[in-house]
Amino acid sequence: MASEYTTTEYIQHHLTNATMCMSDSGVTSNLGDGNALACADAGFWAIHIDTLGFSIGLGLLFLFLFRRTAKKATTGVPSKFQAFVELIIDFVNDNVTSTFHGKSSLIAPLALTIFVWVLLMNLMDLVPVDVIPTIAGLIGSSAFGMDPHDVYIKAVPTTDLNLTFALALGVFALIIYYSIRMKGVSGFAKELSMSPFNHWAFIPVNLILELVTLFARPLSLALRLFGNLYASELIFILIATIGLWQLPLHFMWAVFHILVLPLQAFIFMMLTIVYLSLASEDH
Question: Residue 196, preceding bond cis, omega within 30 degrees?
Answer without folding.
Answer: yes
